[in-house]
Request: fold
Amino acid sequence: MERIDFRWRYQPRNELDAQLMQYIQNNQMTSKTEMLLLALRSFWLPYALLEDCSGDKEKMRRIARSAVQTLRKQAQDIVGLVGLEEAPQTIQSPKPNAVTSLPYSKTPQSNTLSLDTLRHLAGENDYDDAGLVNFL
Reply:
């Protein structure tokens, strides 16, 4: 395994992101690293493995099942947290024409998302990524 040094500096530009970062920063139950890695692994790891295309298919399925299970558990927790009657079966897009699923294919070249697509998916540039310039 190749070791990499990954650094991320983020200064929220909107109130919701500021609340989220404050929650992560002040959480006493779980470390920031654990919180962020759980979310990133559950949401993005299957895509990273698919892009690699050299991995074991059964391992990929196992990891994908685990990610789905984690995301379903999180959805159930959120439903209970705010007292929703039941989890929605479909995701309602907050913006017209917003993308609700990631485009992918099984070929590595077409599986790579553009930076503009990722920015769109992350909320139409409602974040400050200026601190990432040295890491891209």
About this structure: Helices lie at 15-26, 32-52, 57-82, 108-111, 115-123.
